[in-house]
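Students often ask what a holo structure prediction actually looks like on paper. The answer is less mysterious than it sounds. You provide the chain, you provide the ligand, and the output is a string of discrete structure tokens encoding the 3D arrangement of the protein together with magnesium ion.
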Amino acid sequence: MATNRTFTMIKPDATAAGNTGKIIDRIIGAGFTIKAMKWTQLSKADAEAFYAVHAERPFYGELVEYMSSAPIVAAILEKDNAVADFRELIGATNPAEAAPGTIRAEFAESIAANAVHGSDSDENAAIEGAFYFNTRELA
Ligand code: IDP
Ligand code: MG
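The corresponding structure tokens follow.
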């Protein structure tokens, strides 16, 4: 059953470049409601756990180093069709392939440092949201 929530992180390249506010503005402008949000930094162990699903991929070590290199902003977002609509808003993983107007096309530096995370399914949105937030932190 589809839910109306997704999970995002504004990634280290985007917070370090001072793009946090612009990206949040794009997210709200696209019709998403913020249910929870925090500015934090992942330890290496946190990043390994969050991306455990990618542990066998060749870029896992690079991804863990990068994701723990600077602060991130984690958020739970609400909108009808949230998971699919948010993936459309952020664009393809590789910014060279991201459609014009998408957040990654505008802000991503590379396929690794690609500005934002977006959950790929309702199930993962719930798991990823629970990694950062307890129910008392939801608006
Ligand atoms: P997604 O974020 O678009 O869902 P995934 O395939 O789930 O993409 O990969 C998770 C993250 O791992 C990407 O957002 C990116 O930061 C990083 N990543 C993916 N592919 C590569 C790669 O080929 N080289 C380096 N980093 C990558
Ligand atoms: Mg993914």
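Residues 120 surround magnesium ion (ligand 2) (CB under 6 Å).
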